[in-house]
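input
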Amino acid sequence: MEASRIHNRWPIAREGLPFILIAAGLTGFTALLGWTWLSVLLGILTLFVTSFFRDPERISSAAPHAVLSPADGRILKVEHIESPDNPLKAPAEKVSIFMTVFNVHVNRIPVSATILETIYSPGKFFSADLDKASDENEKNSLVLATRDGRKLVVVQIAGLIARRIACWVKPGDFLNAGERFGLIRFGSRLEVFVPAGSAIVAAPGRKVRAGETVIGYLDGPSESER
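output
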């Protein structure tokens, strides 16, 4: 586990610091040379890169059986999958989330769990909002086990311009719900597979925040949570 990234206390993800420093340095250099328009454009680029790698603190008061969104973005699809031919290897409920370049791109664990396995799969780079991106794009899958033995899978999927998937955890690591586990740049997709029968409360089109928004419940919501 890369503890400095998992427990980051900076407002910026450390993986973004080299990009921010390079952009800021070029902005300052062109400004000193008197290249005003270029320095303005580079200044805007610096602000964009800084915004892209922002890493705000997130706190959730959700119930222990709640499934939190692993990403900021918009719900693309919610599906019931009866066939075991999916990353969970069993009937599952699947939630797909699309992140634009304007969303926070730090990913968070949806439930308190131990990492059983990480599986990297090379692939293509179709736009992440397309259905075929789920099957054909480059991806990294995390197989999780809760304390009571239930399995979930979270899949980081690269997009059209997202060519770098970062995963900061390894098998054997335990993370609490909402803790950081990785990042994708720039614009991408995450998918969550939970056991069939779990209550999914997220709906297509809904905006979600990583580590805060509840997208489902492993045991179904209580009356007060409905």
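quick obs: The longest strand covers residues 73-81.
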